[in-house]
Recover the amino acids of this structure.
């Protein structure tokens, strides 16, 4: 089975939709989706994800089931510096490297001074993902999956970078903050994972591409900056 995770297009957060650039990106994504040829599609309940998905869904005359657990991964946390943030990944480098817990898979959230609801939200995402994969024939068993009904379906998830990082953390058994702090899936980027079933009845997901935006480069559409921070500290027009 292939699992495709698509981040929404360039967002206009003020109206939970897409900018004009985001709409162009979503349209360009359609050609990429035609090559993917999805079997099933699922989507976050947020407008920017649904608006992105609509271009591809209309092209395929498909509908996407909406899952609330796929919404953006927002949780109030207090950092080691004492600053409270709504996004657990918006951490300054000195905060991120100050706690060994941030580099662990099982108790990463203990690195925060306050993380009310964070563990609950994390479990909501990973349990929701496992329920979905079980529906498609793969049951979580420890850090592996049992291939109960092996198949070559292509399942597409339209969502957000934060929740994508949590899903990848769970699928690949790596610390969430390693992904949240060390990677960025730009708007309309495509991440591809595929089951490898080298032992009978056992599956493990392997990522063959992360954050691919070749559909934008082919059309000379520059990538959006959304999700990134300043490349240089002196770049005052880029967010710090």
């Amino acid at each position: 089975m292939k699992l495709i995770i698509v981040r929404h297009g360039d967002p206009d957060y003020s109206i939970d939709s897409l900018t004009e650039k985001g709409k162009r990106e979503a349209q360009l994504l359609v050609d990429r989706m035609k090559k993917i040829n999805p079997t099933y599609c699922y989507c976050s309940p947020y407008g920017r994800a649904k608006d992105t998905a609509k271009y591809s869904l209309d092209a395929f005359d498909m509908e996407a089931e909406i899952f609330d657990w796929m919404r953006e991964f927002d949780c109030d946390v207090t950092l080691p510096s004492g600053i409270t943030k709504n996004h657990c990944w918006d951490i300054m480098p000195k905060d991120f490297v100050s706690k060994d817990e941030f580099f662990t898979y099982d108790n990463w959230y203990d690195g925060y001074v306050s993380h009310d609801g964070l563990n609950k939200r994390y479990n909501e995402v990973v349990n929701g993902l496992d329920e979905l994969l079980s529906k498609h024939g793969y049951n979580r068993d420890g850090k592996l999956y049992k291939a109960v009904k092996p198949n070559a379906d292509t399942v597409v998830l339209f969502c957000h970078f934060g929740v994508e990082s949590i899903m990848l953390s769970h699928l690949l058994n790596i610390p969430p903050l390693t992904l949240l702090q060390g990677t960025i899936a730009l708007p309309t980027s495509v991440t591809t994972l595929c089951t490898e079933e080298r032992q009978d009845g056992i599956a493990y997901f392997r990522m063959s591409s992360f954050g691919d935006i070749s559909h934008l480069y082919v059309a000379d559409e520059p990538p959006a900056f959304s999700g990134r921070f300043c490349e240089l500290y002196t770049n005052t027009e880029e967010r710090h």
